[in-house]
Design goal:
With 137 residues, the protein is mostly helical. It has a domain of 73 residues: PDCD5, DNA-binding domain (Helicase, Ruva Protein, domain 3), CATH 1.10.8. Helix 3 runs parallel beside helix 5. The protein is elongated and about 75 Å long. The N and C termini lie far apart (85 Å). This is DNA-binding TFAR19-related protein. One of its GO terms (cellular component) is cytosol. GO terms for molecular function: DNA binding. Belongs to the PDCD5 family.
Length: 137
């Protein structure tokens, strides 16, 4: 689909959701849940639309396979890509190679954070030990 077609679909869906919002349709207790559900669905559609605009088909396929294995990593990568697109740092569609580089950078950052969180316990040699008391029996 062309960018103009995607934009038109997005506008139509947003207008539809805005019309449904104020009227409601069920008991008062279900209104908030339905509106939240619609809002989440609209956000998911918007994310999907942005990602189709900024990702090559091969890169989108790889991201989909990553989502099957680890949902949180795919969401993190999507958030980063959307942030880069919104800030204007992406000039062209992201290729599979560029996506691999981004994945490598994210993995390296996570490794560094894990290394910083390690706690090292070193025991002194020749110190007192509870087992030494048992030898005197």
């Amino acid at each position: 689909m062309a960018d103009a077609e995607l934009e038109e679909i997005r506008r139509a869906r947003l207008a539809q959701l805005q019309q449904q919002g104020p009227r409601g349709g069920g008991p008062a207790g279900q209104d908030g849940g339905e509106q939240a559900q619609q809002r989440r669905q609209a956000e998911a559609e918007q994310r999907a639309s942005i990602l189709t605009q900024i990702l090559d088909p091969e890169a989108a396929d790889r991201l989909g396979r990553i989502r099957l294995v680890k949902e949180s990593r795919a969401t993190d990568i999507e958030n980063r890509l959307i942030m880069l697109a919104q800030s204007g740092q992406l000039r062209a569609k992201v290729t599979e190679t560029q996506l691999k580089e981004l994945l490598g950078a994210v993995a390296e950052n996570q490794r560094k954070e894990e290394e910083e969180q390690k706690i090292v316990i070193s025991r002194r040699k020749g110190g007192w030990d509870d087992d030494d008391d048992l030898l005197d029996l």
